[in-house]
């Protein structure tokens, strides 16, 4: 069961070698993972939208889409058709080329990043030896394309949304990148497969002290990187109407939507790979473990969306620069110390240092942490 | 130095940005526009623009019999139609000197307090919606509001446009299973409130977003004749139920919560505490409600034939503690069956006048939640 | 694989395009863009040599990394200067910024 | 199998072509916003060239730093300095043609010089991994590494002061 | 920054999520077209006219009180006339413009003849905006039984009152008839002093079938 997809892959390659000329067979062999990702990406995106709507509905005690298809299962298809048939309005004074280019440019990195994720034991599209760095580089480029979308649609609201989103993405990119460094220091290589192999059985990194803190920071920054509540400032409906994608409709809006949800999947997949031991797990086949962990993280992100109000721009920045960044630096040092020392002593020292830093950071941010209030009553009879 | 002839004239010279939020905007509670001048993200100038929902309510009332404009008062503050009827009925009864039997007074108080629960629950839901919580609090609020609206429909015939009050009492008596259902509601509501508070009150993001935002100082509140929860959140203990003792409010024991900072968080939390007090009033009212007829003989006659209800010439101003503030009706009669002058003192309109003073220096998202915390309904603002 | 001199042709053309841009652009940011292109051309050269001829291939790549970081730093300062020029003189066209003091 | 190598060779030349096209657009387009975008295209093209030359670490760093960092700076400056609805004016000043000729001459000289010099090509092509770069950065190149760190901090402070002080001055 | 309050909030939403699967009072959505909510008795939607036996003679006597009292003035009545042009106690046309009516129930209260009541029917979508929603008399008329079906308590109360008025009218009619007969006999006895014939048929004399003179009301 574990190597199911790998056997399918081999079978296709054997069939291709038997039938096609050899160079064609090699091309087919290369193309299988690409086709798999090209199907897997959009399909996950479609069904993630459905899962999100169903989950949020249940949190709010209502049913969620159940009219189209048996339990609303065909709803994503209906949305897709609607998006395709909707008229595509381009504002008259907008920058036509950039307006068209932005959604395409945003989807490319979202798809490219799938190549680096280890879906299961030797089920990875391209085993780059700079896997994680490639992922971070790709997610870095989305900032630029979001801003082109905002600037090209030539409207005040999207401009404000664009500026906010760039500021947020940059200030969360640094803790995002640096919180992975401890894992790289301990594993010694960028490649995602190596990282997963370094967490055999149940020795996931999340159970080490620096791993827990790293997981917390990495997950928070991942939520911010993907612009989801409580950091969904750029497309804050209540203030900026729809942030940078106000002026998009029809298929272009669908592309933004697709990119957002694919990012949600890939980012939680990376968090699962780096901190929760990718496809490592006791009994179940490897790819089941991988999907299980990724989907729990996605459900947590959706749970956030159902519960939290939005952070204001300056609080959001303050949280990144004045809390997360310092914690990441200390985390790197603690990981190094943990790596050097042996036996249980390292866990204790690492945990001690981390707790001290968290307390100290809380003291520094005292002014911002709100206090509970008690209220008195008049006319108390 | 010699001024160069510049090729391109910059229009970004003062770095300020003129943005108009509304009238077609997802979070302005109806058709209300704010012309905001922004420097970066902080608000430099804010001009509210109203009047999109003006329906000429007061001129209409002058060409209609007194009872004819009672259904129109439901449309003033379309969330609490019962309290609008209550205030109008009080004003006309003061004008014409009509007595109201005890049972009718109790029914009126029960309806008023139920409307207060509906209004405050809805407001907290929409305030959280402006803060960005994606519809979860609103839908919890709607789930509870449904129970109360079912009670209204059972008694008055319509969920939101009740048209239930008549001069001298109420249109019809309570249905047999109205009181048991109110008792059951009184049991469950505190449990819902505790769950609502657990979700919201200690939520750090909410506290961070709303504390010290949109502070309304006590003096400004009093001088701008602000009334209702906004005034009490700024620390002024003024509640018309306790000041005027209208209807039978002095028979019930209840307290009035007071805030000190007067910011958005206080206004939110005062409304939660007020809901708990309303439940106490409902509890006592449901226990002590006497039997008897629900409308005085005189009132029933006029309800049957409103055209020959000719109060003697004179004027009267009846006011109540509506969920949004002091809702008053000023009625002037010249002896005919049509009022000579009819004016509504709308609380949200007057509370809206100081929106700019509270928003200066804040960011755009803060202006949205300050507007949300004032609790305006455009039907009442524009009349 | 392709021979070394093809890559060198590519990087030199890239360099010349950057040079042309740097010298003929009227918009200050345009000039900065061209300078970035010239730096990239140099990087390509370095990497090509490290791959084909370099004695210690690592040095060239480390050198390329230093160039990238310092290019980033230079770009940051340059753009800050451009902003201040714009704020004081309301223009970012090179032929209008010809006074040493304002 | 030679079909595959032919395809990959064509692929490399396509990357070269796209990068050069991007560079030319970046240099000649009138609308500065489009020029910035084509610069992004050039940078990504150069990163692709690094990948082709088996320098993945450098390619990833290039994308991370250049496209993720410097491009944002360029776009921000472009946004802050142009007016919405600003009509584009001729981009190049009068020295356009002489510079073009000079650049072409220089290019010709480069090409001739590259063609003539006998490159001492090693037998097997070197591949450098991220670990090697990391180690050498901290061992042989420790001094430049620290120096760059100092320079970066200085620049950080400098830029903030440059941009910030005017902000304050303008206000008073 | 992230403290306990945030976790408590998430616990609440999780509880809601889980309970909405098995707790009845959590999940209150009713899937409208298939399942419907029980209608409240006093629910008032648009008004309708009521007729006792035949749709030709509705209870409404075209007294125009409801048209005058209606706040948005959406009722227009034209009184019927017989051949010679004498106005009759029946409306020729009685139309309510449903697009203007705000179902406030004032017409039901002020109608002295209990002829107009508020209906429970709310699925009234039409295609045209102007004429379609202007309900004429034939679309407004509904039998007494419909009123009894939708509003039992009010219907019984009103039927009782009508019955009482009916009996009072009949009794008054009989009294008047008896008085007239007594007067006639007195006149006859005075004139002929003939022994008065026992009108044994009087007690079980059937009520005149003709409709009682209206002015007795």
UniProtKB/TrEMBL annotation, chain B:
InterPro entries on file: NADH_Q_OxRdtase_suD, NDH1_su_D/H, NiFe-Hase_large
List the Gene3D superfamilies hit by this protein, alphabetically.
Answer: Cytochrome-c3 Hydrogenase, chain B (1.10.645.10)
Q: What is its EC number?
A: 7.1.1.-
Keyword Membrane attached:
yes
Topology relative to the lipid bilayer, per the entry, is: Peripheral membrane protein
What class does this enzyme belong to in the EC scheme? translocase
Spell out the HAMAP family in the cross-references. Answer: NDH1_NuoD
Protein name listed in UniProt: NADH-quinone oxidoreductase subunit D
Please report the organism this UniProt entry assigns to the protein.
Candidatus Abzuiibacterium crystallinum
Q: What would be the name of the gene that encodes this protein?
A: nuoD
From TrEMBL, chain C:
Which GO cellular component terms, listed alphabetically, does the Swiss-Prot or TrEMBL entry include?
Answer: NADH dehydrogenase complex; plasma membrane
Alphabetic keyword roster? Cell membrane, Membrane, NAD, Quinone, Translocase, Transmembrane, Transmembrane helix, Transport, Ubiquinone
Oxidoreductase keyword on record:
no
Q: Which InterPro entries match?
A: NADH_UbQ_OxRdtase_chain4L/K, NUOK/Mnh_C1-like
Topological category with respect to the lipid bilayer: Multi-pass membrane protein
Question: Which Enzyme Commission numbers does its entry carry?
Answer: 7.1.1.-
**Which molecular-function annotation in GO is an example for this chain?**
quinone binding
Q: Which reaction does it catalyse?
A: a quinone + NADH + 5 H(+)(in) = a quinol + NAD(+) + 4 H(+)(out)
Q: Name one GO biological process term.
A: ATP synthesis coupled electron transport
Annotated localization = Cell membrane; Membrane
Its primary localisation, in coarse terms, equals: membrane
Q: Does the keyword NAD apply?
A: yes
Residue stretches spanning the membrane = 6-23, 30-50, 62-86
Q: Which domain of life is it from?
A: Bacteria
- Cite the record's note on assembly: NDH-1 is composed of 14 different subunits. Subunits NuoA, H, J, K, L, M, N constitute the membrane sector of the complex.
User: What is the protein's known function?
Assistant: NDH-1 shuttles electrons from NADH, via FMN and iron-sulfur (Fe-S) centers, to quinones in the respiratory chain. The immediate electron acceptor for the enzyme in this species is believed to be ubiquinone. Couples the redox reaction to proton translocation (for every two electrons transferred, four hydrogen ions are translocated across the cytoplasmic membrane), and thus conserves the redox energy in a proton gradient.
Which family is annotated?
Belongs to the complex I subunit 4L family.
The name this protein goes by in its record: NADH-quinone oxidoreductase subunit K
Q: Which organism is it from?
A: Candidatus Abzuiibacterium crystallinum
Q: Which taxonomic lineage does the organism of this UniProt entry have?
A: Bacteria, Pseudomonadati, Candidatus Omnitrophota, Candidatus Abzuiibacterium
Per the record, the gene is nuoK
UniProtKB/TrEMBL annotation, chain D:
GO cellular component, as recorded: plasma membrane
The alphabetical list of record keywords is: Cell membrane, Membrane, NAD, Quinone, Transmembrane, Transmembrane helix
Please give the superkingdom of this protein's source: Bacteria
Give GO terms: molecular function aspect only. NADH dehydrogenase (ubiquinone) activity; quinone binding
Q: Where are the transmembrane segments?
A: 6-29, 36-57, 63-85, 97-115, 141-163
Reported EC number(s) for this entry are 7.1.1.-
Pfam families, per the entry: Oxidored_q3
Is-annotated flag, keyword DNA repair? no
Q: What is its main location?
A: membrane
Protein's membrane topology: Multi-pass membrane protein
Protein's UniProt keywords contain Membrane:
yes
Q: Where in the cell is it found?
A: Cell membrane
Cite the InterPro entries for this sequence.
NADH_UbQ/plastoQ_OxRdtase_su6 (IPR001457), Nuo/plastoQ_OxRdtase_6_NuoJ (IPR042106)
Catalyzed reaction equations: a quinone + NADH + 5 H(+)(in) = a quinol + NAD(+) + 4 H(+)(out)
PANTHER family named among the record's database cross-references? NADH-UBIQUINONE OXIDOREDUCTASE CHAIN 6
Briefly state the protein's biological role: NDH-1 shuttles electrons from NADH, via FMN and iron-sulfur (Fe-S) centers, to quinones in the respiratory chain. Couples the redox reaction to proton translocation (for every two electrons transferred, four hydrogen ions are translocated across the cytoplasmic membrane), and thus conserves the redox energy in a proton gradient.
- Similarity comment: family membership: Belongs to the complex I subunit 6 family.
| Protein name from the UniProt record | NADH-quinone oxidoreductase subunit J
> From which organism does this entry originate?
Candidatus Abzuiibacterium crystallinum
Automatic annotation (TrEMBL), chain E:
User: Domain 4Fe-4S ferredoxin-type: where?
Assistant: 47-80, 92-121
Species: Candidatus Abzuiibacterium crystallinum
Look up the signal peptide feature and give its range.
Answer: none
Bias (Low complexity) occurs at 204-217
Q: Which GO terms describe its cellular component?
A: membrane
- UniProt keyword Transcription regulation present: no
Sorted alphabetically, which Pfam families does this protein's record hold?
Fer4_7 (PF12838)
GO MF annotations, alphabetized: 4 iron, 4 sulfur cluster binding; metal ion binding; oxidoreductase activity, acting on NAD(P)H; quinone binding
Q: Which UniProt keywords apply?
A: 4Fe-4S, Cell membrane, Iron, Iron-sulfur, Membrane, Metal-binding, NAD, Quinone, Repeat, Translocase, Ubiquinone
By what name is this protein known?
A: 4Fe-4S ferredoxin
Residue ranges of region Disordered?
165-217
Q: Which SUPFAM superfamilies match?
A: 4Fe-4S ferredoxins (SSF54862)
Under the heading InterPro entries, the entry gives:
4Fe4S_Fe-S-bd, 4Fe4S_Fe_S_CS, NADH_quinone_OxRdtase_chainI
In terms of Gene3D superfamilies, this protein maps to: 3.30.70.3270
């Amino acid at each position: 069961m574990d190597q199911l997809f790998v056997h399918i892959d081999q079978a296709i390659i054997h069939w291709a070698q038997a039938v096609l000329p050899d160079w064609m067979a090699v091309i087919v062999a290369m193309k299988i993972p690409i086709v798999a990702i090209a199907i897997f990406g959009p399909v996950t995106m479609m069904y993630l939208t459905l899962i999100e709507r169903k989950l949020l509905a249940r949190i709010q005690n209502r049913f969620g889409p159940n009219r189209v298809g048996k339990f609303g299962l065909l709803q994503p298809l209906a949305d897709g058709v609607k998006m395709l048939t909707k008229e595509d309005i381009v504002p008259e004074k907008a920058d036509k080329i950039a307006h068209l280019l932005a959604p395409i440019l945003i989807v490319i990195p979202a798809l490219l990043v799938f190549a680096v994720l280890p879906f299961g034991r030797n089920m990875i599209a391209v085993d780059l030896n700079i896997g994680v760095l490639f992922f971070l580089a790709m997610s870095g480029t989305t900032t630029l394309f979001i801003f082109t979308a905002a600037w090209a649609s030539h409207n005040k609201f999207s401009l404000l949304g664009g500026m906010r989103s760039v500021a947020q993405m940059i200030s969360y990119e640094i803790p995002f990148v640096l919180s992975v460094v401890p894992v790289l220091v301990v594993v010694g290589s960028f490649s995602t497969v190596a990282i997963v192999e370094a967490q055999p059985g149940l020795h996931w990194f999340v159970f080490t002290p620096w791993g827990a803190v790293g997981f917390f920071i990495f997950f928070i920054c991942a939520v911010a990187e993907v612009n989801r509540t409580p950091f969904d400032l750029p497309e804050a409906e209540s203030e900026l109407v729809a942030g940078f994608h106000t002026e998009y409709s029809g298929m272009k809006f669908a592309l933004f939507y697709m990119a957002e949800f694919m990012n949600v999947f890939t980012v939680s997949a990376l968090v699962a790979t780096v901190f929760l031991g990718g496809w490592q797990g006791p009994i179940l086949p490897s790819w089941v473990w991988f999907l299980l962990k990724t989907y729990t993280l996605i459900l947590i992100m959706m749970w956030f969306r159902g519960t939290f109000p939005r952070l204001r721009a300056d609080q959001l920045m303050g949280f990144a620069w004045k809390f997360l960044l310092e914690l990441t630096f200390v985390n790197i040092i603690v990981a190094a110390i943990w790596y050097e020392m042996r036996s249980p002593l390292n866990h204790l020292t690492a945990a001690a240092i981390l707790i001290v830093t968290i307390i100290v950071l809380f003291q520094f941010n005292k002014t911002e942490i709100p206090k509970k209030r008690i209220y008195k009553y008049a006319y108390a009879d | 130095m010699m001024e160069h002839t510049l090729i391109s004239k910059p229009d970004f010279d003062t770095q300020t940005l003129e943005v108009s939020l509304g009238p077609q905007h997802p979070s302005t509670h109806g058709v209300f526009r704010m012309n905001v001048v922004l420097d970066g993200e902080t608000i430099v100038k804010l001009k509210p623009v109203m009047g999109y929902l003006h329906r000429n309510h007061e001129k209409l009332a002058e060409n209609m019999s007194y009872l004819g404009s009672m259904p129109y008062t439901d449309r003033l503050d379309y969330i609490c139609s019962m309290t609008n009827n209550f205030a109008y009925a009080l004003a006309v009864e003061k004008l014409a000197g009509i007595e109201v039997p005890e049972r009718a007074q109790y029914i009126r108080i029960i309806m008023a307090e139920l409307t207060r629960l509906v209004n405050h629950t809805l407001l907290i839901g929409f305030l959280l919606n402006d803060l960005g919580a994606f519809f979860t609090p609103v839908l919890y609020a709607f789930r509870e509001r449904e129970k109360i609206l079912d009670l209204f429909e059972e008694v008055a015939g319509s969920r939101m446009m009740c048209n239930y009050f008549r001069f001298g009492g109420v249109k019809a008596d309570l249905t047999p299973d109205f009181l048991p259902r109110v008792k059951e509601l009184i049991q469950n509501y505190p449990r819902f409130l505790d769950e609502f508070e657990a979700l919201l009150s200690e939520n750090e993001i909410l506290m961070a977003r709303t504390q010290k935002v949109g502070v309304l100082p006590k003096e400004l509140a009093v001088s701008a004749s602000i009334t209702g929860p906004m005034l009490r959140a700024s620390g002024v203990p003024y509640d018309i139920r306790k000041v005027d003792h209208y209807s039978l409010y002095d028979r019930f024991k209840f307290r009035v919560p007071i805030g000190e900072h007067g910011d958005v968080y206080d206004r939110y939390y005062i409304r939660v505490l007020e809901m708990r007090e309303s439940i106490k009033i409902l509890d006592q009212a449901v226990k002590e409600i006497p039997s008897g007829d629900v409308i005085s003989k005189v009132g029933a006659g006029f309800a049957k034939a409103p055209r020959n209800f000719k109060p003697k010439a004179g004027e009267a101003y009846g006011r109540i503690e509506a969920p949004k503030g002091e809702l008053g009706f000023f009625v002037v009669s010249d002896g005919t069956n049509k009022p000579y002058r009819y004016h509504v003192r709308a609380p949200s309109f007057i509370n809206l006048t100081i929106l700019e003073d509270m928003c200066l220096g804040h960011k755009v998202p803060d202006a949205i939640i300050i507007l949300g915390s004032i609790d305006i309904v455009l039907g009442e603002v524009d009349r | 694989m392709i021979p070394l001199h093809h890559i060198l042709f590519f990087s030199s053309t890239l360099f010349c395009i950057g040079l042309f841009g740097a010298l003929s652009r009227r918009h200050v940011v345009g000039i900065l863009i061209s300078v970035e292109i010239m730096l990239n051309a140099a990087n390509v050269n370095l990497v090509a040599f490290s791959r084909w001829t370099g004695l210690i291939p690592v040095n060239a790549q480390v050198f390329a990394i230093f160039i990238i970081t310092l290019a980033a730093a230079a770009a940051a300062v340059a753009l800050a200067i451009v902003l201040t020029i714009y704020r004081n003189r309301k223009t970012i066209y090179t032929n209008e910024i010809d006074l040493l003091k304002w | 199998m030679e079909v595959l190598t032919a395809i990959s060779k064509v692929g490399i030349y396509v990357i070269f072509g796209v990068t050069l096209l991007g560079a030319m657009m970046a240099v000649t387009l009138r609308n500065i916003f489009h020029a910035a975008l084509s610069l992004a295209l050039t940078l990504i093209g150069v990163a692709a060239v690094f990948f082709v030359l088996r320098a993945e670490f450098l390619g990833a760093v290039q994308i991370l730093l250049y496209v993720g960092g410097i491009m944002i700076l360029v776009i921000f400056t472009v946004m802050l300095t142009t007016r919405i609805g600003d009509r584009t004016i001729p981009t190049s000043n009068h020295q356009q043609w002489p510079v073009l000729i000079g650049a072409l001459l220089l290019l010709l000289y480069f090409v001739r010089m590259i063609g003539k010099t006998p490159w001492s090509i090693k037998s097997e092509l070197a591949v450098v991994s991220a670990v090697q770069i990391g180690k050498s950065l901290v061992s042989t190149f420790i001094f430049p590494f620290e120096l760059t760190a100092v320079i970066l901090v200085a620049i950080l402070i400098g830029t903030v002061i440059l941009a910030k002080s005017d902000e304050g001055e303008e206000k008073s | 920054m992230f403290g306990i309050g945030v976790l408590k909030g998430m616990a609440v939403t999780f509880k809601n999520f889980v309970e909405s699967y098995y707790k009845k009072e959590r999940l209150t959505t009713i899937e409208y077209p298939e399942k419907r909510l029980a209608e409240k008795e006093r629910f008032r939607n648009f008004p309708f006219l009521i007729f006792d036996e035949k749709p030709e003679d509705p209870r409404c006597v075209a007294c125009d009180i409801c048209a005058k009292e209606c706040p948005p003035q959406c009722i227009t009545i034209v009184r019927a006339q017989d051949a010679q042009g004498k106005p009759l106690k029946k409306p020729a046309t009685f139309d309510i413009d449903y697009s203007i009516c705000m179902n406030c129930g004032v017409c039901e209260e002020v109608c002295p003849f209990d002829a107009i009541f508020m209906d429970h029917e709310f699925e009234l979508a039409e295609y045209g905006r102007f004429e379609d929603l202007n309900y004429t008399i034939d679309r407004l008329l509904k039998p007494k039984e419909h009123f009894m079906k939708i509003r039992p308590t009010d219907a019984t109360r009103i039927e009782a009152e009508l019955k009482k008025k009916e009996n009072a009218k009949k009794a008054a009619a009989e009294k008047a008839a008896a008085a007239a007969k007594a007067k006639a006999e007195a006149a006859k006895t005075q004139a002929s002093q003939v022994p008065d014939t026992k009108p044994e048929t009087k007690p079980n004399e059937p009520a005149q079938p003709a409709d009682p003179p209206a002015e007795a009301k």
